[in-house]
Amino acid sequence: MKKEILRMERVTYKEEETTYLKDFELNVFSGEIVGLLPVNAYGLPQLLSVLRENPLLYAGYMYYKERLVNSWQAGKNYDKRIAVISDQTSLVEGQSVLTNIFILRQGFRQELIRKKLLKSQLQPFLDEIEVEIEADTLVEKLSSFERLVVELLRAVVADYRLIVMREIGTLVNEGELEKIHAFMKHYAKQGFSFLYISPHFEEILQICGRAVVMSNGKVIKALAGEQMQAQTLNFYSEEYNAKVRHHIESLKERQSNKIVFEGRHLCGDVIFNFNLKVAQGECVVIQSLEEGIFRDLYLLFQGEKQDEIHPGTCYLEGRATKICGDRGIAFIREEPTETMLFYDMSYMDNLCIAMDHRVKNIWGNRKMKRCIRADFEEILGENVFDKRMQELTEMEKYDLVYTRIMLQKPKIVFCVQPFKGADLRHRIHIWELQEKLLRKGIAVVILAVNMADALSLADRLVRIDKGTVVTEYQRKDFGMLPRNIPWKALYDENGRIP
């Protein structure tokens, strides 16, 4: 008989009279890996809060290891031992791997810390999954993959029987993700259970035995057995699939051989002698297969290494340039609605911030701002210009970021993991905004660790491994990519749409 680790029964949860979870139903058995596919992100942070922090429920019951731990009648203090692993680390910086796994865990009561003994206790856990990590390594020195492994080991050592993995596919490349999946399967055989949250169907199909689909704070469908097929899950993204197919089919109409950007002999701490050419209106995805490479590319294309000795030379439309300060080059950071907006400024000032090279005295030019508003009200909406920045929806924030870039009129835009942290609805919107850049003839370079949705826009894929080993795939070669890359199924072995 299966042992139930978690059961959420008709759970409704509110914060300040706003309902975030409505009649939420979920159960997870011992040794099971269950997928959770969020169609939108509404209620997802609150679900994690309910799992970890046990706030008082408005309605329903929650059981952990077949014991009631929370209900609408009264919150319980029973320790559920549920771990959440996501892009936000829960490890304590400034402390070692050993300290985080053993000494800082709940229930550690040794007054005299014997590090040699603890190291001998840690080593079998590392040997069991064939991972080499030094026990004395400070957590801030760990790669993303190593950090995920350490958090997983900490949960296992502390006997957290339910481990929530939230969107870890955006943090590591495909090879590392396969290793994480292998570790999860290994521990599932030992009775540990996993709730695997991902907006990508491919990931869920690779690792999960069954899945639930969540929308607007409610489970709208449960999938198991034969229902766990790609075509069943794709039902929830038919619009997205149609847009991507239309984009691929129309690429020939706007192909250009005009090179707008060239990087020659680019160097960093890890990268050496890397060369890149990008054509007008072309989408190039650069995938870093090693964390140091991603960091180097980020700094190079943001312009932070341009004053160092021999970082290489960049050319924009044939002229040598420095990326920082050249308004023909734009840069969109990770999660731009958090990192690229100024919340103490007005909507209009945020929109016009990159136009000062085109319009003199833009800050005091009210006539120009009225013209911009008139031109963009139909696209952005009439009401957004009068809203405070904090009142904007996530969609409106993305529109603001990308419209600002379009007003800048760059020749090329570097985007850092543009789909990271986005649910299905926002992924579609981000995809549309990037497609709009390409249709205007603006080249787009996507810096990625995991491919996510990037392949759905790509004309070319450049993969960089240790030692600056570069492997390049044209679209006709996309069918030869590893099977677990999202959107790879759109291409046959000749790069055509089946």
TrEMBL record:
Residues 6-241, 254-491 form the ABC transporter domain. Keywords: ATP-binding, Nucleotide-binding, Repeat, Transport. The keyword ATP-binding applies. InterPro entries: ABC_carbohydrate_import_ATPase, ABC_transporter-like_ATP-bd, P-loop_NTPase. The keyword Repeat applies. It comes from the Bacteria. GO terms for molecular function: ATP binding. PANTHER family: CARBOHYDRATE TRANSPORT ATP-BINDING PROTEIN MG119-RELATED (PTHR43790), GALACTOFURANOSE TRANSPORTER ATP-BINDING PROTEIN YTFR (PTHR43790:SF9). This is Sugar ABC transporter ATP-binding protein. It comes from Roseburia yibonii.
